[in-house]
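Figure 3 (text version): structure tokens given as input.
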């Protein structure tokens, strides 16, 4: 065993975007989104190892070696030497649960500790954000993931570049999800007809949410946004309908072929899980409250 091997392990939470608007910019640090989403208590755990025996950076996700462009860019920007990265995702990957952003955030925390970089959280968020933009991951997950709760992204970009975040006041609650498949964020956001719909529907959703900043309004605006985009599969539509039939709230996780749902006044979490389990494996998570 190499006694000179060093390693650090860190965790970062997943994030579900309900609706968003894209803000383009030639500078990756300034490109981003406004919108609203939920930060989960489940996410990605990353172990970063440094050793004289490691001659090139290798990245593994759930045991499989990956190219991982987001993480690769992050390592290149923060590390002066090759590392071995082992990530374990406790959330579906590529389905709209912010796994890419969580992996980037956790990796940035590890590199900061491992190499004593002396960076603040906001500086690490900026590094992760740039890696997400350049690598074709998300455009706003990491800002929310560093904040927690039900995060409203009022101005795009990290706070180091003028971004502005707020939160919906709420007690902690459970969110239940079913992932049916993947959607490519990079491919979807390169379609101008889709991005046009995103920006129109996203602005409307944000305006309505700020008039009534509650978790129920967030879910209603997210549902409206998802139907306006037209990216819903038959399966996701069926799950949303089934949840609403028992009094719950549901919408599509952006961007993925997946549904997230919360209980309503006349619907318990147990009933919600039972209904959703008819369509696939249900995974549940807690969203931290402000109380």
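Below: residues designed for each position.
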């Amino acid at each position: 065993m190499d006694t000179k091997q060093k390693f650090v392990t860190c965790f970062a939470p997943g994030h579900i975007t309900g609706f968003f608007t894209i803000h383009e910019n030639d500078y990756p640090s300034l490109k981003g989104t406004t919108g609203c989403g939920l930060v989960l208590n489940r996410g990605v755990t990353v172990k970063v190892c440094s050793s004289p025996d490691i001659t090139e950076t290798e990245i593994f996700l759930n045991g499989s070696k990956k190219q991982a462009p987001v993480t690769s860019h992050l390592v290149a920007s923060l590390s002066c030497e090759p590392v071995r990265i082992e990530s374990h995702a406790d959330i579906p990957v590529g389905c709209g649960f912010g796994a890419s952003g969580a992996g980037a955030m956790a990796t940035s925390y590890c590199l900061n500790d491992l190499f004593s970089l002396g960076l603040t959280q906001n500086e690490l968020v900026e590094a992760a954000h740039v890696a997400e933009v350049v690598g074709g991951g998300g455009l706003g997950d990491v800002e929310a993931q560093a904040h927690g709760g039900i995060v409203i992204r009022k101005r795009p970009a990290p706070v180091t570049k003028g971004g502005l975040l707020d939160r919906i006041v709420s007690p902690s609650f459970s969110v239940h999800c079913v992932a049916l498949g993947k959607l490519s964020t990079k491919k979807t956001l390169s379609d101008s007809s889709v991005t046009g719909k995103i920006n129109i529907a996203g602005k409307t959703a944000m305006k309505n949410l700020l008039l009534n900043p509650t978790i129920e309004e967030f879910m209603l605006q997210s549902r409206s946004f998802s139907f306006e985009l037209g990216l819903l599969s038959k399966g996701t539509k069926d799950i949303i309908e089934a949840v609403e039939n028992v009094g719950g709230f549901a919408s599509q996780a952006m961007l993925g072929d997946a549904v997230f749902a919360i209980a309503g006044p006349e619907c318990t979490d147990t009933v919600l899980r039972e209904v959703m389990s008819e369509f696939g494996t249900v995974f549940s998570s807690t969203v931290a409250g402000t109380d």
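The chain has two domains: 6-167, 173-287.
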